[in-house]
Amino acid sequence: MPFEARFPIDFGMTRRCLALLALLAMLTACASQPKDAAESMTPGGSATESAELGFEEDDDNDPLETLNRFIFAFDLTLDVFILKPVAATYRFMVPVVVRDSVRNVLRNLRTPVVLANDLFQGEMDRAEDTTMRFLINTTVGLLGILDVADGWGYPHHDEDFGQTLAVHGSGEGFYLVLPLFGPSSVRDGIGLLVDTFLDPLTYVGQAYDVNNELMARTAVDGIDKRSRNIETLEDLQKDSIDFYARIRSLYRQTRANDIRNGTSGDSASPGLYSTEFKFGDDADTPEKPAE
Predict the structure, then answer these.
(1) Residue 177: domain span
(2) pLDDT by residue (tens digit) across 81-92?
(3) Which of 47, 82, 133, 228 could form a disulfide with 281 if both were Cys (CB 3.0 to 4.6 A apart)?
(4) What residue ranges in the chain does DSSP mark as E strands?
């Protein structure tokens, strides 16, 4: 039987994604490089360290600011009228133990993506932790419902292809705000696309026509993360003269911290509505010791 008959993957969609990936790669190559004399915005890091991670340290790294602000306002409107009320209802109606179990399952399902990026970055110790977490939580943890591995010395950590590109010297490109996904950059936009291809469930969804279920997984993930940061984001917005600029700054700090595996200081910001932005629910995750 032909491959296409056994696995009816939408190759048209794949080609469009690859074309977008190539465009983003070109934008990264054209983006301005970091200034050596820039003052560091990363917590606990120097200007040189920030430059090594490919981060711009001034507003010149936001050439699409007008468009970005428009998309930011659009996303914020969706958050105010849809995501935040749903998240608040979810938090009120669903017990903490159930919400934690939902998060555990979602983390377990993301394991292949995390493991692939651990390996791409040459982080063998973290790859071992990821593998052991998946084996333990899928079996003893009842398909990921319980995070048994954390108590056995295998704490959760996250990785994505945007971090992988940074580890291998790719600059961030300019700042972007993506519809629905929120704060990002050219580099992290590429990472988001590549992570989609690294996720085995992408191909399962296409082969067995369960794409709606995969979209539901993404929606539940966003609701769960938003529910854990309601007051934090409210306070952040109240204290900000320019909420857009504050989120942009904190996003860069958070990403720089992620790339260093948390060895340069605590994560500076919660998330807003993007699955790519770090959220407060990870605040209890132990940091990786500096090597």
Answers:
(1) 13-31+40-279
(2) 999 999 999 999
(3) 228
(4) 175-178, 182-185
